[in-house]
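Example 3.2
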Amino acid sequence: MKKRRIPHTYVIVFYVIIISAIMTWFIPGGEYREQQVIQDGVEKTVMVYHQTENNPQTWQIFSAIFKGFERQSGIIVFILLIGGAFWIMNDSKSIDVGILSFLKYTRKLEKNKLVRFLGVDNMIITLIMLLFSLFGAIFGMSEETIAFVIIMVPLAVSMGYDSIVGVCLCFVAAGLGFAGAILNPFTIGIAQGIAELPLFSGIEYRLFCWIILNIAGIGFVLRYAARLRKDQTRSLVYSEDSHWRKNNVKEIENLSYFTPLSAWIIYGIIFIGLSLFAVFNHMTDLKIGDPDSGSGALISIPVNPILAGLFAITGAFSLRKSVHFFILNLLGYTILFLIVGVMGYQWYIMKIATLFFAMGLFTGIAMNHSPNKITKLFLDGVKDILPAAMIVGLAGGIIVILEDGKIIDTILHSVSSSMKNFGNLASVTIMYLIQTVINIFIPSGSAKAALTMPIMAPFSDLIGISRQATVMAFQFGDGFTNMITPTSGVLIGVLGVARIPYEKWVKWVTPLIILLMILGFLLLIPTVTMKLSGF
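Structure, written as tokens:
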């Protein structure tokens, strides 16, 4: 009997494009338009649905791929630059040295009875996931996780787990934080602003929700990791992980350590650059939430002079040890400046990609490589990561078909109209399901908030549900399916970098999504049955 082959990820995404095109032939066209209305003597802008001619898609399934690449060009270039930069760093064996040192240190911790009882690996997984969850909850970390996958997957495989656990350490953790957003200005901030609520109000209950979601999500990952500890071959991606296992960090124990003059020169150049940056930007306003509205915090500290001074000290010490530890030091400060850039200067993927690209070049020079070798390594990295970038562009074609076919707004209008004759609990549940379904077609939280909240917020007044509960329904509906929807460029990019086939990821993550969606429903019940602060 011939064994049934699972379709390639590219094939699955192309099938979705075709199905989306077929839908445009049967679903009427429509769009929401802004309209000025007078409510309680105040002029407001509301979104009003208008039926339009539908635009059936045929040959456009091919042009949609081109448009998808244009639409997702930022993430595609981001992935290519990250791949090239990290290939240069991987060639230096510095990350392997760092992982090996980390594993040796963690094994020493097992001498402590409490650590041994809790499990050192369990503590590592939990702490890393909590850190990335906080990033997702506070400033909406999403695209940035693509860069961390290249670090976390080799770490997880070296610890005896698989690439799925590596993806969970950063991407799933950030997704848990995104769904249980505490101060995320891109989702909660926009949604509450449109709903005319005090920004970040109701934070007490959202913090409780964040804790519950993290307990469930991290617990799910720990349970899976425990199964792999007993038998790593039980991994769904055991064969795919051969790429990561063949670069086993334990094989570099006999690596020769050295520090070329070029590494000291790079150290001096970076220190001078950081010093000049610190002089012109000596105080940095780190934003948590939206302090302009009175909600959130604005912390003004001399972070750049502090980091420049610390780099001078740690860079010199690492160079005395070897160039490998200096490159690890460089990676650490790259991550620190990423966090400062996002929170203090509102950096997005262009500047983040530039930061990692510079890190890759400095790494190659520090290793005393010639310009030609650095270029070759960079191109090898781009070539290796290219399939991940390609699938992001292909997935972008799904959204293009749905938008050009003019059916996204029709779907939204149809499902929102179905709620009129339900009770409070049923209505907020349907809102939750609507937001979940819409997230498949509009994976951007900001765009979905701008589109749905002008409709949902006034509707919640009519049926007697607090606008805060409506925002919570949006928050949960926006967050969970980001980890599974094929229209998410970030998810597809993460899976491509980690070399995890989409169909295997769906098989693994579906039980977690179901668990989180059930929790989301249970956490919505108090928003309509209890008197909560801010609701």
